[in-house]
Predict the structure.
Amino acid sequence: MAKKKDNFVMQAGILAVAGIVVRIIGLLYNKPMVAIIGDEGFGYYDSAYAAYSIVLLISSYSIPSAVSKVIAQKLALKEYRNAHRIFRCACVYAFIYVLVVGGIASLFVFFGAGLLVEMESAVLPLKVLAPTIFLSGILGVFRGYFQAYKSMAQTSVSQILEQLANAGVSIGMAYVMVQAVADQDMSTKASYGAAGGTIGTGAGVLIGLLFMLWMYGLNRKMIMGQMARDYHKTEDSYGEIFRIILLVVTPFILSTGIYNVNNFLDKTIYQKLMMTVTGLQESVVATDLSAIAKGTKISNIPIALASAMATALIPGISSDFAQRNKKGVRAKVAKSVKVTMLVSIPAAVGIGVLAKPIMQVIFNQPESLELSSRLLALTSASIVFYGLSTLTQAVLQSIGKMVTPIIHAAVALVLHAGAMAVMLLYLDHEYRMYYYVAATVLYSVIVSVLNGFSLKKYLKYKQEKDRAFLRPLFASVIMGAAAYGVYHGVYYIVPINLLALGVAVAVAMLVYFVLIIMIRAVTEEELRSMPKGHLLVKAGRKMRLLK
């Protein structure tokens, strides 16, 4: 875990790969899950998980980023003893926080599940999720500590192990629970199956925590060595450290909570209006939410890069800002936005034009395939804006503007919720799910725009648009046309969806790679800075695109 050259793009790449692997595992295990519990059960599962996620955000989710920010500022000044004192305090803080806030949250979720979800059949899955909140806070502190050292490998591996455990236990327990009530009606089987699926979440968090404890033990000797070489005489008091952690963690929690509450709010609004105003049955609403959730899970895969970039940015920008290096902060922001857009824009276009074949591979339920595919195509537009909003939120938090993203998220929350309610109440109900997705896209656009204005204000940052947005968009449009044509051409000759999709994706990646170099959307130096960048440069030279 020794501190190496500051290459946040490389570290973000490590996290991004892990994030994408985690999401792919999630998609792979969701496929048999839906086959076991059905679209109705998946709707209950997704509704319960959305409510659980909000409580988790409040209780522990933001701890890694907050701890990473505080410790990184001390490491930038080579105050290793103070950094470790912060870590110890963070562990105690997290333990107390989890016992008090997490304990209250767990009890509230267990006994008040009916207040968080509108559908009665989603109550049992939510109750099963309640105990998991206890473990998540401590796991967050360990991840934040390693991230502060700009070492993302430990977090990445723990996330993958967590998801693997989650996948195996979820599928197994979903099957066991469905079989336990095999003689009951479909809604009961769907509810119990969803509850079985949520058991895997707790198992995954436990495995992740055990791995991080093991990694800390392996690195303890090196950490003690750094502390021994620390000649700073001033030590922060534990009272001061607790005050700093409290002041940093609380805004992170508020910001992240408001930023992510839109998913839970959207589901709540949709359930209330559809069941109480239009009179739709619970099973129908659950099936609607299942169709929407499928698209969201697929579109979240490329957003993993933005999340990873944001996580990797926090310690680097916090260090630069602590040393009053605003030029370094602006350079990191520009580089991170460009790398994220180089991936997010083609991902949005590719998923948009190949929505149906992608959905057919992952969630091939014939009765909902057409609808889910169209919803995914519409959802793909949010990939670019969620990528931008995630990045810019992390930057604002890293430079100490904790309240700013909270205000922006709250404004977006009110505006998009109002727009969604108006569309659901006054427009044709046949298109109700499209209104839901359109509102979520609107949310991401509003947050991105507001955060962009604040970056310009506080950092005097001016986003370069040509190479960061316009050229990647031009290359992506041509890539999308090529992918669409190749898919349908191959499928016409050999009607095998997976084969046609694989060929189309391969051609699309090649076309995009050639175009972004030819139109100089990316330089050789920027290619080298990316994960496995030397292989990209080597490929470019073999194709005579680079000198």
The two ends are 36 Å apart (CA to CA). The chain is about 85% helix and 0% strand. The mean pLDDT is 81. The first helix runs from residue 8 to 61.
